[in-house]
Structures are given as structure tokens and as C-alpha cells.
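ok so for the tutorial part 2 we go from a plain amino acid sequence to predicted C-alpha cells. step 1 is just haveing the sequence, like this:
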Amino acid sequence: MDHTQAKARIEELSGLLEQYNHEYYVLDNPSVDDYTYDMLMHELADLEQQYPDLRSAHSPTQRVGGTASNQFEKVSHEVQMQSLQDVFSIEQVGSFVTRCREEFPDVQFSVEPKIDGLSVSLEYRDGRLTLGSTRGDGFVGEDVTANLKTIRSIPLTLKTELPLVEARGEVYMPRESFYRLVQEQEENDEQPFKNPRNAAAGSLRQKKSEITARRKLDIFIFNLQRCEGRTFSTHDETLQFLEDCGFRVIPGRKICSTTEEITAAIRSIGDSRADLPYDIDGVVIKVNALSERDAMGATSKTPKWAVAYKFPPEKKKTTLRSIEVNVGRTGALTPVAVFDTILLAGTSVSRAVLHNQDFITDKDIRLGDTIVVRKAGDIIPEVLRSISHTEDSVPYRLPECCPVCGAKAVRDEEEAVLRCPNISCPAQLHKQLVHFASRDAMNIDGLGPAIVTALLDAELVKDAADLYGLQKEQIMTLEGFKDRSAEKLVAAIDKSKSAPLDRVIFGLGIRGIGQKAASLLCAHFGSLDAIRSASREEIAAIEGFGDIMADSVCTALHDPSVEALVKRLQDAGLEMPYEKRETATDGFFSGKTVVLTGTLTMKRSEAKALLEAAGAKVSGSVSKKTDYVIAGEDAGSKLTKAQELGVTVLSEAEMQKKLSE
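step 2 — the prediction. this is what the C-alpha cells look like for a chain of 661 residues:
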């Protein structure tokens, strides 16, 4: 195939794949099977590899990138991405309708589900996606184009070649994707996202678009921000136009004229929540005629022609049937309430964490109780209280022994948690190995919970050091492994030998020592030998540490079993290098006290690390001593207090600019 033929075939394949993509992700009506789609995608990728000059930024192969971005570029919105005024009762909805009727007696409204996600803008020039950005503060957001391209329901090219189309949509994480992600985080002893909205925000703001792609995000388009070459008279017309362009437009919308019709639509949408595969947290009521919107105008933040009715938090009664006790990576015994299934905010719920014995005792929770469970905005349910006991009920006590290995549980004086002290407990060992291999620790690609279970069941490993003695032939005895996959796992394990010391320290799973603490420890002492030789007092003196964390480090690193494990890891070839990162002493943030608030485009821990590397002290509360507050989306009381005290407030984009300078 020559260059001309390759160009024609690439254009043909790109068109077909975009068509099939639209059918599958937007219309939910695929015309070809997955195998056919995959074969066409492989053919396109092969041709683009042979002829790299023919690879377009809008090619279907470019939906999943792998390059990392140190920060997201600032984007100024030509049309302000306003937020909506919230209302919490039908009476308030009625007041809004009355106010609109005072100006326009025949006003009509578009009533739509309010998707619980993250608002973004999609900008198309001559029918091609050129920019995707977050809302930010409404005026300035962040360029997340590469990550948005991984969302398959976002068209890379439109079915129109108008000079400019800018659409606004809500990125969300479907419940199925969220549950899968939370399960993965819990298995790795990571802090799970509380709800799909936070998960969507965190996933869209990943520095690597391949991570975003794995999270399986989706989007609904709900507004036309700008358009050149076409005019419209109503909001409903704009949504039909956007649907014709190839967008996945907000479903279930209705045109209403009276408060009674709007109320009925709100109830109908509310009743449908249980059947939806995504979360909605309310209903949006908008004036339909665009000319009437223009006449009504807006405040500095919200339009006067729309409100968002928010569903009240749900609480339901159910019966507590049993309490399961799970054993965590550090031996913590965590009680979990198992109750009759109830429907909360559209999802079936039958379990909730009870935290510890003190929580159970304080709420006097007993087996057989009628309990109240809520899910107030968060997807993670919680037991609020017990409202009645059965006649023969008795106060519940956690077991005195580990339910997995039978070792007698112990309780530290400083904690409310019972722990299994047996470091060879099978439950602990599994979670320790999963944690050791996790992305933020040794980053052993492909060594997830299922593979760890298989290795333990086959008695191929008994601790982390055993991983480095695994041979390809041994791994191939496990179900699902063949020559190539076994080779890849061995290579991933071997690659982890060069992981820096702070990742090894974190991977050891020392109680209370997370990523940040491990980095601080290594930055202060520089080597494993120096950390081992340090006294409790020296470790406790590290800013961000304290007596409890220092005790934890000293106890762990001088425990004979941990010492033996570390020695075997070193003998296996782990290099444990550490390059100390210098802290700036003359930058903008050097010596300043900074507070972070609101939702940021980067993880809060990443922002804190960057600020601390720039010489700042990052505090959790605002006071007169605070120099700067970095405010992200939905900043609350900390921002208000900063404004009251006259503290300088910076956006995240401004923070990143100062850091780069």
C-alpha cells in the first residue's frame, strides 16, 4: 500500500470507527460486534505507525494517550460557565416561576435531570474538537482536552462544519464504574472516593490520560454556549441541534408551563432515580426562550432564568441482620453492618461500615435492631442510629480473637481499633502484598488482588520478598497465564527493584505512614540506614510527624520480622535509591502559610507536596497568620473566613503560575 492508498484507507477507517463509536456509546445501538471494531482499530493503528505523518490529532486511536502533564494550562471561558441557584422545596420552585411570569406571562420552562458530575466545556472549530476545559471558577478553567478525548461518547468530529460550536456538559462516572473503582481502592487499602462525583472529578484531572480512560467516564451535554453560523430561538432547539451534531444530550427533559406541570416532572424524575445507571442530585428548571433569558439576565454568579431543585437527603429504616468483621492490611478488625436491602438515592444498599467498638457502643447498636441508614449526598451509606431493640437483644461486642487466624485481638491505648497481632494472618498477608504491589508503592503492573490470591493459594509466595524469586515457569502454572503474560509479570516485578526508597517505605505498610510521611522521612534522613539509626525523638521532630508516627516507624523498622524482610528484599536486588529534593528558600511561597480549599484539578496531596517543595507551610485552617488561600471549585467556609480576614485568595491556576515562576 502506497502513501496515497494509506491516506484514503486511514480516512475511511477513521470515519467508520467514529460512526461505530457513536452508535455504541451515544445511541446504544451498535451495528458491528466488538471484534470487528477492534480489528478495524488495530488496522488503523498499524497504518498510522507505518505512516506517522498521516496520524491526526482527531484520529480514533488518539482517544487514550499515555503522556504525562505536569500541570493543566489555564483556559479563559469566552462565555461564563455560571452555577445555578439551589432551591430545596416546591414552594421555592413556585416562587421562581412566579418571578419569571411577572416579566413574561407566557413563559415556558425546560425541566431536566441534574446529573451529579463535573461541568466541562467542549469547543469545536470547523467541526473538530480543539479544546476541552473544566468549569474552574466560571471564568477560568483548566485544559483537559486529552483526558476528555478518552470519553467515548464525546465526538472528536461533529456532523457539521460550522466555524464554532461550544457545548457544555456534565462528566460523570456511572455507578458500575464507581463500584468497581471503590472495590479496587479498598482492596489496595487506599482511601476510596466517597461518591461518583468526586471520583469523576479526580479521574478527569489525572495527569495521565490512560488512567482517565480506565475509569470509564461518560458525559451528558446540557447547553449550547456559543455557535457561529446558526441561530436558535429556544433552549430545546439548541439541544436538538446538539443531538444532531452527534452529542449525547441530557435525557428525560420536559417542556412545562405551570408550577403544577413542573412539580409533576420533578416527581417523575425523582421516581426514576432507582432505574438510572448514574447519579442525579436534583432537577434543573430553565426558561426555554433564549430571548427571555437574555432579558432576565444574571447576577455575578448565577442566571436569573434558572434554578436547581435539590433532592433532600434520604434516610430509611431497615433491620440489622448481622455484623461481619473484616481484617485489614494492618490487622485492624473492622465491623460491617449487614441489613435488609433498602433503596437509597437510586441504589440498593445492604451494608455499612460501623468503624469500631466505640461507635457501636455509643449508638447502642445490637443484632436485630431497627436502624436508620442514610446516604446524604455520598454514595457510601452510614448507620445514623438504632431506634429499637428486639426483646432478647444484648449489647454487641466485637470478637476477642481474629476471625481469620484466631489470634487474640489487642487494642492500643491510643486507638479505638482492635487489631490482629499475627503478622502471618492470611487476611493481612493478602492485603499487604496487594498494597506492596500497588501503583503508589512498588507499582508492579499486573499484580492485582486476584493474582495475589492465586500466588498465595499455590503457596508460591509467603511475603513480599518471595515475589522477586518467582520464575516464569511457576507463574505459568496459575490459571489464565501463558508464556507472554508470565514474562510481562516477571518483567514488572524486576522493574520494581529500582523503586525509590520512599516507595519501599510506603510499600512496607507501616501503620500510619502514608506516601507523604514516607517522603518526609526519606527527605529528612536520606537513607534507610539513617532512618533505622534515628531515635524516636529525631523522627518525631520532623514537621508533620509526632510521637505516635515516630513510635510506629521505630517499632516497625526494628521488628525482627521486618528487618528480615528488608534484608531479603535487598538481597533480591532492590536498590532503594533516594534523591533528596531540595526545598526552595527564595520563591513566592517560601516561608508562607498556605491553606487549600475546594475541589482542585490535582489531588490535594499533590498540591500540598508542590507547595511544601516551594518552601510553604500548608495548614488545614485559616487564621490571621495565613498568607494565602488557594481556592478551587465549591470552596466553602475556609474561603469565606479568608475573605472576612482579608487573606489573599489565589486560584489554582494562579498558584501553578507562581510555582512555575
